[in-house]
């Protein structure tokens, strides 16, 4: 078919099924979300996004490893992520700038879900988008709780 | 942190030059650009329907098939209704053209007479023989001479128009036949835009280097959003114009008011000239269908001016105006420039082309002036080159 657009069964569906954001979706719904994603390959040490850039969407690690660092604070390592993990999720919700840098530790394959496409999913398939949003809210709430506990412990320690 | 420079005069110069070059290019391949443009318009018209069908649980392929099938049935029904009328009219089109030309001449003559009555200063002074005849007490003879002159002039005009239609009827038929294959492409193009548009977009995005990926994706979104809002706004504006004009013409008692209104509203896609053409066409039809009602063409022109004002102050800001967010002076200058570089097609295409080039230019301007993104791209290429050299040098 023209431009190699023939629809085939995508092997990454299996991996997406295990991602917490998509765990409530049926196989057909997952296939629809998969159709919105953009796949990218990064070579080891390549920057995926930079601190201060305007974020456009969420990234999900298919294979390889990614580190999240703070270049402004001597490349302080915040997180290391492997297959199935996602990052940059705040950009799915608003147009704020990235607060850290993401860099591939080894050769890495990721998929990106772009904010505009997620918003169009909210229009056309609000049931799917709302379930993803709910899972995302749960993840963000857990991170907030974790940050509050950390700050509290740090305050007590000092 | 904003590391890029804002869009300056060089980016804007690039936008204007690119728009002009594209207009010249499009003029040379109008046979392809026009069906593509109509395909895009139809795509934006039908995509909300496809989205509704998908939201109801249909697959994209089925939704696109059903929506385009419904469109084809609708177009076929219109063709079946309109074709016999066009066929009847085309057998008599020479007489029709002559009739409309005569009505136009009468309309101008009436306007001149009315103006002369209202403003005596404009009244033509009698020529010397006329003045002598009037003095010699033969006003009836002078009037008869004038009527004879008018009859001769009208006959000469009829002959000229008849000769013109005779000479050019073949050309018109050939030109129409030349466009039919291109126009048949429209539903085909629309079908594939609706079916494969998202996948084609992802296919294009795959070619973008990683460093530019997020910003380019944003560019795609902005360009698509600009085009969608422009064309959906244009369609909404056409529907509103057609409704207002049709209601007004129906109120004035013209034949086929909504057909005329739709024609005039579509002609208005051509900025300025289209609106004037539509108004003159409707005034001619009024003068031809109601030759005894001298005021009707002026009422029709008044209606068009009223709807034009409504367009400028109410409809345009609500529809197309919002989509392009362009300064009115820039709009007028670009329309003039479009007309100058690419004629009628330039006038028609300048606004959508400028809208897309403007967004693309601003984002590309941001990309190529963002030193950090360029540095990241160079870094990625350096890593790839290093990887390519591994194992080449041994010992």
Task: Walk me through the structure.
The complex is a heterodimer of chains A (158) and B (395). Chain A contains four helices and eight strands. Chain A is an alpha+beta fold and 158 residues long. Chain A has a four-stranded antiparallel beta sheet with strand order 1-8-3-6. A four-stranded antiparallel beta sheet of chain A has the order 2-7-4-5, with no helix packed on it. Chain A is globular, with a radius of gyration of 17 Å. Helix content of chain B is 85%, strand content 0%. The longest helix of chain B is centred in the middle third of the chain and has 67 residues. The relative contact order of chain B is 0.12. The interface between A and B is medium-sized, with 33 and 29 residues.
Briefly, what is this?
The complex is a heterodimer of chains A (158) and B (395). By secondary structure, chain A is of the alpha+beta class.
List the helices and strands and how they pair.
The complex is a heterodimer of chains A (158) and B (395).
Chain A: H1 12-17, H2 27-34, E1 38-42, E2 47-49, E3 57-63, E4 66-70, E5 76-81, E6 86-87, E7 101-104, E8 108-114, H3 115-124, H4 126-157
Antiparallel strand pairs in A: 1-8, 2-7, 3-6, 3-8, 4-5, 4-7
Helix pairs in contact in A: 3-4
Chain B: H1 9-28, H2 30-55, H3 60-91, H4 93-118, H5 128-135, H6 139-205, H7 213-252, H8 257-267, H9 273-289, H10 296-318, H11 320-324, H12 328-369, H13 371-389
Helix pairs in contact in B: 1-12, 2-3, 2-6, 2-7, 3-6, 4-6, 4-9, 7-8, 7-10, 7-12, 8-9, 9-10
Order of the strands making up the biggest sheet of chain A: 1-8-3-6
* Helix-residue proportion of chain A: 25-40%
Helix/strand class of chain A: alpha+beta
pLDDT < 50 runs, ≥5 residues of chain A: none
Structural class by sheet pairing and helices of chain B = mainly alpha
β-strand percent of chain A reads: 15-25%
Find the count of extended strands of chain B (DSSP E, 2+ residues): 0
Largest sheet of chain B: none
| Overall average residue pLDDT of chain B | 80
**Largest chain interface and its two residue counts?**
A-B, 33 and 29 residues
Q: How many beta strands in the DSSP annotation of chain A?
A: 8
- Mean pLDDT of chain A, rounded to whole units? 87
Tell me the quaternary state. Answer: heterodimer
Inertia-based shape of chain B: elongated
């Amino acid at each position: 078919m023209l431009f190699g657009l023939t629809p085939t069964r995508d092997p990454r569906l299996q991996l997406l099924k295990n991602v917490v954001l998509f765990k409530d979706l049926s196989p057909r719904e997952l296939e629809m979300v998969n159709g919105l994603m953009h796949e990218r390959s990064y070579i080891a040490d390549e920057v995926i996004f930079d601190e201060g850039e305007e974020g456009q969407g969420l990234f999900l690690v298919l294979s390889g490893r990614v580190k999240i660092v703070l270049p402004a604070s001597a490349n302080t390592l915040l997180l290391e992520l492997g297959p199935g993990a996602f990052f940059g999720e705040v950009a799915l919700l608003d147009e704020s700038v990235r607060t850290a840098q993401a860099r591939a530790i080894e050769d890495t394959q990721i998929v990106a879900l772009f904010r505009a496409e997620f918003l169009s999913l909210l229009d056309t398939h609000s049931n799917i988008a709302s379930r993803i949003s709910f899972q995302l809210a749960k993840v963000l709430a857990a991170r907030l709780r974790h940050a509050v506990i950390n700050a509290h412990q740090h305050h007590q320690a000092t | 942190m904003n590391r890029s420079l804002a869009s300056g005069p060089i980016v804007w110069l690039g936008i204007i030059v690119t728009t002009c070059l594209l207009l010249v290019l499009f003029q040379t391949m109008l046979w392809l650009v026009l069906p593509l443009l109509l395909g895009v318009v139809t795509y934006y018209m039908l995509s909300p329907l496809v989205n509704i069908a998908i939201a109801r649980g249909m697959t994209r392929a089925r939704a696109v098939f059903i929506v385009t099938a419904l469109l084809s049935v609708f177009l076929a029904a219109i063709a079946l209704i309109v074709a016999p009328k066009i066929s009847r009219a085309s057998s008599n089109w020479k007489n029709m053209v002559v009739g409309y030309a005569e009505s136009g001449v009468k309309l101008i003559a009436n306007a001149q007479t009315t103006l002369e009555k209202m403003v005596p200063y404009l009244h033509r002074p009698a020529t010397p023989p006329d003045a002598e005849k009037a003095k010699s007490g033969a006003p009836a003879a002078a009037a008869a001479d004038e009527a004879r002159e008018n009859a001769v002039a009208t006959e000469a005009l009829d002959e000229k128009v008849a000769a013109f239609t005779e000479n050019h009827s073949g050309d018109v038929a050939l030109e129409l036949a030349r466009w039919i294959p291109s126009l048949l492409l429209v539903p085909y193009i629309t079908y594939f835009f609706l079916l494969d548009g998202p996948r084609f977009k992802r296919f294009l995005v795959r070619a973008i280097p990683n460093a530019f990926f997020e910003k380019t994706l944003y560019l795609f979104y902005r360009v698509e959003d600009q085009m969608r809002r422009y064309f959906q706004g244009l369609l909404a504006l056409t529907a509103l114009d057609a409704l207002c004009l049709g209601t007004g013409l129906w109120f004035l008692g013209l034949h086929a008011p909504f057909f005329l209104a739709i024609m005039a509203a579509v002609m208005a896609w051509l900025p300025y000239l289209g609106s004037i053409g539509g108004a003159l066409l409707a005034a001619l039809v009024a003068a031809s269908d109601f030759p005894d009602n001298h005021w009707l063409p002026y009422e029709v022109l008044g209606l068009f001016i009223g709807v034009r004002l409504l367009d400028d102050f109410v409809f345009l800001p609500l529809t197309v105006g919002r989509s392009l967010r362009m300064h009115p002076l820039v709009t007028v200058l670009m329309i003039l420039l479009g007309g100058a570089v690419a004629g009628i097609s330039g006038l028609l295409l300048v606004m959508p082309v400028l809208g897309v080039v403007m967004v693309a230019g601003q984002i590309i301007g941001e990309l190529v002036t963002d030193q950090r993104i360029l540095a990241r791209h160079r870094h990625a290429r350096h890593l790839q080159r290093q990887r390519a050299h591994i194992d080449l040098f041994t010992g």
